[in-house]
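Late entry, evening session. Most of the bench is empty. Finally got around to the prediction I had been postponing all week. Sequence below, unchanged from the version circulated by S.P.
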Amino acid sequence: MQPCLALTNEGRVTEYNFLPEPNKPAYTLSEAVGEALRNFPSIRAARFKLKAAAAEITLAKTEYLPNLDVLAQEIFTSHNIVGGTIIPQILDVIPIQSGNDTGNSMRGYWSSNQGVGVSWLALDFGLRRANVKMAHAATTQAEQGLRLTELDVAYQAAETYLDMVAAQQTIRAARATVDRMKANVLAVHTFVDKGLRPGVDASRADYELSASRIGLIDAEQATELSRVDLAERMGVAGTYINIDSDPIVRAPTPQFDARPVELSKHPLALLRSAAVTTAKAKVHVIDKTWYPHLWLHGNMWGRGSNVPGSVGTTVAGGILPQAANYMVGASISFPIMDYFEIKAKRKRVFNEELAERANFDLAMQILGQKDARARVLLVEARRVADETPIMVKAARENAVKTVERYKVGLANIVNVSEAERILARAEVDDAIAQVRVWKAILATGYVQGDLKPFLKLVSAAEGKYH
């Protein structure tokens, strides 16, 4: 349905009708949840984050590979060598020259350097293994983040769908109230016109009819807002959504017994636990940083030059190497002065671990509160659903008898108005009582971290009434 407004010349709304939207399929609750899981952007983002985290594992494992470097240089340079010292350079502006001291000439010569070097970190006291474990922990955290995101998206879509069902049921009750109030207005005006009732009764009846129309408008507005929210929850914001509410409102009150909940298995608890593990892994990496590293090296290289006096016979004018060398060796590096920096880093990541542990405790508090609330809501929603039919029946009889008493002069218009309000409220409560039971079951499923039992009940109702 889509809103259709008619405005007067003064800009005031005179009609607020809802017309059917053509060619729009009506989603069942199961279909709406499935659409949300397929389309919602946060799920796609969580999946990409998981893939990125998995790639970090591969990246961490590459640290076990040796370094293999190949270098080839062809140089045309002058050859003026002066004895002295060149301190290490930040920008590498001055190339390093080799050979004996020479004169000062700008004549250029060809020279070449080619070589290959292999180096491998043979011993790191567990640093690389710690990095791999940290990558695995981050991947597990991303997996739990995806599970929680899927649970949240499915829950929010189902909850908004049920809100729209409740709003539609409220519209039906409000329309019934408007119809009754129209009949009452006609009867009251008839009595007033015949002089059997004072004129104030007609004004009061007109007021009550107008108030019931405003109630209908409010219900229609709530429905349309729920429709907008549902489209957003399904990942198709801005799209007009129709729903099939019959399976929800026509099915008997669903029977669902909340099983004992192991809150530590909820995706939120698992996510927070994985965050603790990741933070702990970071501490372990820092602990492994301040250790010696043992490197093994192997190099082969050749050099060529046509500078006069070069060793060996010049090959291709110095373009190809004319003398070769090799080297094998080992080196140990130990960043002694990094101790203070590493100590500060460890203090930082250790406090991050403590913060994540506090977040885990908070998550357990939240889940415990949600579990208790869901159980209360489920019990009380069932009790209300059992009572509302009795309440509607009594309110309807009261309204009918009050109208009859009014016709024979035993009741006034205030009594009639109050009876109609009681009936309207009872009809609304009865209309949404069934939906409240469904929402309570949904809340229970969320706390359990699994909406499959809820969706199974929904599918059974849809199969029977769709």
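Two things to note before I forget:
The longest strand covers residues 108-123.
Residues 188 and 202 are 6 Å apart (CA to CA).
Will write this up properly tomorrow.
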